[in-house]
């Protein structure tokens, strides 16, 4: 890409000093880096001959950061809803994943997710799933930036019969993708309750060996807390800390059921938390103590979780809910102001993923990961200038994903005038519909079996059964 000056009515930089420019401009260099940010007349005058793209009645800001998701699970969107978490996971998700998840499934699901994210203004995400090399490849082809984590657990997975195979796959994946301009490989032990002590320690050692992030789920449910105490006589966060997992650059998703002691421990070890308000509500997991985490200085970000439990990847919706939910839960309207909610979805999110030096704000030297938002729709009118925070309120409380007009990552346009440039939307939609038909047939056949149906809906407990054979001599009269 040749150098280009983007000239917008408002530039929301999301820097630490909360810089907002009226009639501002950003110079994107040929290498995809931001080379100047400032008042438009000064930037234009200092760079004669550089083309200027005028963005009238538009807002220029950093791209959004989705700090936790499972990209291929868009192909399972709305497949099974309004169920208990255990029934949803064990009765529907895992059986379907065992049947269908393969490299092709993961590539297509990632393409579908990337298309949705680009349309919604997300430029960076963190993923945990299977066949992560295929997810990384599809993401790089779409042009998005990502932290991609290969899931590891004590159970057989779609891409590995054992955790040893998963660890070997992850090692090779890291070696193949380390240093890529868009993809950061990572280690992703699924959760403390699905990993043994040895697995958690091995994952931490691998992350430390290559200096890559470690992603995991922590305390999404109250049941996890109870089970940890019953099995290990330790709280979840204490157990993970004692195993040395937090030596790695850890991103912990959910953290719904952390208490004050847990929060202090997370802060002490520099663990970043990915808050997932929609998924936590939909699965009835609870409400994370965001206010206390903020007060304790925990690094907070926000994510959508997978589209099978959200059911979308709309980060505007997610940060709005994050801001509103903590207010209602604490009866404090000041608990998470719009400016901080937007920071969670931009600069704080990038910092949580250990990419704050590269993206998350519009600053000289960072990569040009940015979006252009249309301020003209009725739901964005009118515009107040008296309060400098009103621009944050407008973005968080009023702006919609459909207002995103242009998206750029690493200096490359991924969407112009709402047209995707790196993905074939029609082909993706058609292939996704074909998968839906296949999955429907699979579930209909599976639920047609009474035993499987009872297990799927949670009405039957599987236990050991025994067959006893008895031989006895019978008299003829008995016959």
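^ Assign residues to that structure.
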């Amino acid at each position: 890409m040749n150098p280009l000056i983007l000239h917008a009515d408002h530039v929301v930089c999301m820097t630490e000093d909360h810089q907002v420019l009226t009639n501002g401009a950003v110079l994107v260099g040929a290498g995809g880096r931001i080379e100047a940010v400032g008042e438009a007349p000064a930037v234009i005058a200092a760079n004669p001959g550089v083309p200027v793209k005028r963005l009238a009645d538009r807002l220029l800001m950093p791209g959004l950061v989705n700090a936790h998701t499972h990209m291929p699970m868009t192909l399972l969107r709305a497949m099974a809803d309004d169920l208990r978490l255990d029934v949803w996971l064990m009765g529907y998700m895992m059986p379907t994943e065992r049947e269908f998840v393969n490299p092709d499934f993961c590539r297509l699901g990632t393409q579908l997710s990337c298309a949705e994210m680009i349309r919604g203004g997300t430029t960076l995400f963190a993923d945990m799933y299977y066949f992560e090399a295929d997810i990384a490849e599809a993401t790089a082809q779409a042009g998005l930036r990502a932290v991609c984590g290969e899931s590891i657990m004590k159970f057989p997975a779609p891409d590995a019969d054992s955790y040893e195979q998963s660890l070997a796959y992850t090692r090779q994946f890291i070696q193949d993708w380390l240093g890529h301009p868009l993809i950061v490989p990572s280690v992703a032990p699924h959760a403390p309750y699905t990993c043994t002590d040895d697995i958690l320690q091995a994952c931490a050692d691998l992350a430390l060996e290559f200096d890559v992030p470690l992603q995991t789920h922590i305390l999404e449910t109250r049941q996890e807390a109870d089970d940890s105490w019953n099995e290990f006589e330790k709280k979840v966060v204490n157990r993970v800390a004692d195993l040395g997992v937090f030596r790695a650059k850890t991103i912990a998703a959910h953290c719904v059921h952390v208490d004050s002691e847990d929060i202090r421990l997370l802060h002490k070890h520099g663990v970043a938390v990915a808050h997932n308000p929609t998924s936590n509500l939909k699965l009835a997991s609870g409400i994370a103590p965001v206010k206390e985490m903020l007060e304790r200085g925990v690094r907070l970000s926000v994510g959508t979780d997978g589209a099978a439990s959200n059911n979308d990847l709309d980060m505007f919706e997610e940060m709005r809910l994050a801001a509103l939910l903590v207010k209602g839960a604490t009866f404090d309207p000041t608990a998470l102001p719009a400016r901080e909610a937007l920071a969670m979805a931009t600069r704080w999110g990038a910092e949580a993923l250990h990419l704050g030096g590269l993206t998350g704000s519009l600053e000289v030297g960072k990569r040009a990961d940015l979006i252009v938002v249309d301020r003209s729709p009725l739901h964005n009118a009118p515009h107040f200038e008296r309060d400098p925070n009103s621009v944050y309120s407008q973005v968080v409380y009023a702006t919609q994903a459909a207002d995103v007009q242009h998206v750029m990552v690493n200096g490359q346009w991924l969407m112009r005038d709402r047209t995707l440039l790196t993905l074939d939307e029609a082909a993706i939609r058609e292939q996704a519909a074909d998968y839906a038909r296949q999955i429907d047939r699979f579930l209909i056949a599976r639920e047609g079996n009474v035993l499987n149906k009872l297990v799927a809906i949670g009405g039957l407990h599987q236990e050991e059964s025994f067959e006893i054979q008895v031989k006895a001599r019978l008299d003829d009269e008995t016959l």
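The longest strand covers residues 52-62.
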